[in-house]
Amino acid sequence: LFRSTARLDCTFKSSAIVSSETSITWKYLPDGNGNPVTLIYYRGKSFPGTNAHFKDRVLWAGDLNKKDCSISINEVHFKDNGTYACDVVNPPDVESVPASILLHVVSKGSLPAYSAAMLAGIVIGAILGFALLVAIIVSMVLFCRPSGSKKEYSGAPSSMHN
Hints:
162 residues, alpha+beta, elongated
C-alpha cells in the first residue's frame, strides 16, 4: 500500500550453526530495465546500501537466531515496484539460491472497499436468512405431520379355532 511499511520476509535453512560468518545480502531489481541495487548487507550488524532512493528507508527486521533475515521498507513508493532478492551465506553452506519477492505497490483507491456499513449489512442479511430457513423448517415439521387422532380400522373380528 502506497506510503506504508512493507515487510519483506526471508528465512533460510542451513545445516550449519549461525555464526559471525553468516552474511545476508538484499538486492533490488527495478521493474523493466535497470541494474541491481544492494539495499542492505548484514554480517553481525546491518550495513545499508548507498542508493539515494532507498536512503534511510530500509531497515533490518530479522533475527538470525530464528534464521529470519527479513527487512522492512518504510514509506513505499510506486518506484519501489520490482523484485527483491535475499541471499544468505552461512559457512560452510556457501551454495545458496536467493529467494525472490515481487513487490507491487498499490494506491488505497485500487483496493476493494468494504465499509463497516456494508459488512454489517452482509452479517445481518446472513443472520436473517438463517432465521428464515429455520422458521420454514419448523413450520413444515409442525404443519405437515399427521393429526393426533388415531385411525380406526374396521373389519371382521379374528376368531380363534380350537
